[in-house]
Amino acid sequence: MPLPDSDATIGDKLIHAGGGEMDRLLAIMRRLRDPETGCPWDIAQDFASIAPYTIEEAHEVADVIARQAWGELRLELGDLLLQTVYHAQMAEEAGLFGFADVVAAISDKMVARHPHVFGQESRDKSAAQQTEDWERIKAAERGPARVLDGVALGLPALTRAVKLQKRAARVGFDWPSTDEVVAKIAEEAAELVEARDRLTEAEVAEEFGDLLFVMANLARHLKVDPEAALRAANAKFTRRFGRIEDWLADAGKTPEQSDLAEMDALWNRAKAEEKANR
């Protein structure tokens, strides 16, 4: 339903005058979603249609941090905050909960999960011990459950693979060292090559997924964040291919006018350049 006239007038002043910035953002979102005066695109959205944007904005925050582009972080964090406000507004319209309930829930959770800060427990613990305590409290909150319950389906696949493996490892379902993991990688790679030649596309995709899952397990054993490692590899590829384009442009050429042998030589040149500049 549309806002009453008095509420709309107050909202207009808050939206355009600024100040009370959290209240201002909430007022902006209410206006965007107003069925009579709001934005048609915003009015048409629901939880499912907004969820991909929420994931995208979280990744953009991670990208800014990885690039140490601190001048962009304020804006990206604002975009991410907007996603929470958006979902909370839709929830309020549906009679589920409001933004204040979201804030109360996370505040209660943080107090409950930090008894060494807000309660009587000792702070004399390592970060690893505190992480174990965090997981123990989470498990108690969930109550009786299967080992892998609660690992969010919406996580990036590599991140979710690591979390699933960590859960299984807590009950002893884990290889004792990286040697067994590396051997399994070789086994899965061989199965993938075999699948390429004789299986269907779906079966090839399954074998490829098995290989990625074991690669994520190796990352966990090596204490490497696979998402961060892959982002770094993507950045390196982008940087080096950019140098290939630069050198080709200096020669009056485009990548389409080059060939693999020339571009591979330029790749090695870019690689050597980076090593020399370290």
Could you please say which CATH topology of the largest domain applies here? Helix Hairpins
Q: Please state the overall shape, judged from the principal axes of the Cα atoms.
A: globular
Question: What are the segments in which pLDDT stays under 50 over at least 5 consecutive residues?
Answer: none
Strand content: under 5%
Please count the helical segments.
13
The helix-and-strand class reads mainly alpha
Summarize the structure.
This protein is mostly helical. The chain has 13 helices and no strands. The protein folds into three domains: 5-111, Helix Hairpins (Orthogonal Bundle), CATH 1.10.287.1080; 134-224, MazG-like (Helix Hairpins, Orthogonal Bundle); 228-276, no CATH class.
Q: Can you describe what's shown?
A:
The protein has 278 residues and is mainly α. It folds into three domains: 5-111, Helix Hairpins (Orthogonal Bundle), CATH 1.10.287.1080; 134-224, MazG-like (Helix Hairpins, Orthogonal Bundle); 228-276, no CATH class. It is 75% helix and 0% strand. It has 13 helices and no strands. Helix 1 packs across helix 2.
Topology:
Blueprint (H helix, E strand, L loop, with lengths): L4 H13 L3 H13 L6 H5 L2 H21 L2 H24 L5 H14 L2 H4 L8 H16 L14 H14 L7 H21 L2 H21 L4 H25 L9 H17 L2
Keywords: Hydrolase
Protein name: Nucleoside triphosphate pyrophosphohydrolase
GO molecular function, one term: nucleoside triphosphate diphosphatase activity
